[in-house]
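Supplementary Data S3. Sequence and structure tokens for construct A.
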Amino acid sequence: MMQISGIKCIDHPHNAILPLDCIYSSSIKIQVMAIIKVIEIMCNSTKSWEDAAQQAILEASKTVKNIRSIYIKEHSATIDKNNKIEEFRVTANLSFEIEGPQKSVSKK
């Protein structure tokens, strides 16, 4: 079980993170910060590195929801007997939100 120790105040001029026990105004709008998980994935394509990245996202989206970003760590390729690129490969970090979309709420 996760314990939340602070919240992001979207009405504060610097979007400060305030401890929960400091929230006392009835007009403060709060935004619960998302929890993001990062996984490492590998994928390949016969078309391009961009297609390999897109295939990684499409394949991951079958079981992972709320995908937010992909960071390509490495890219490589295999070469055929005619010295042509046979397969494009990427190793990537995929980030996704595990708590669902962020929602602003008004404390009243």
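Construct B, processed identically:
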Amino acid sequence: MNSEQEIQLQSDPGAGIGLYLVNINRSTLSLVGGLVWQRANYQQTVVPALNRSFGSAPIGGKVRLSRLDKTNLTINAFLLPSITESGPVHFNLDTSYCVKL
């Protein structure tokens, strides 16, 4: 149970598929997509307990580039638009660049 948000139970069933657009020695480019349904049951405090459900269609991609086994660049991007509610769209971007000395 999450005491801060008073979530008693949260479940997130979903399915997805992905494919490599480019997959060679020094470079990869992949895309993923799917559907997710989230259901959250909130703990009953003063008011009756709430149940909240919504669907999402996540879309993401990953780029990895390396050169001479000494440098690596990785970029992950993920977009989570809701398909059942209007409102904000969540976007995550994670990048890293490594140089081996």
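Strands lie at 7-11, 14-24, 27-42, 51-56, 59-67, 71-80, 90-99. Residues 13-36+55-99 form one domain.
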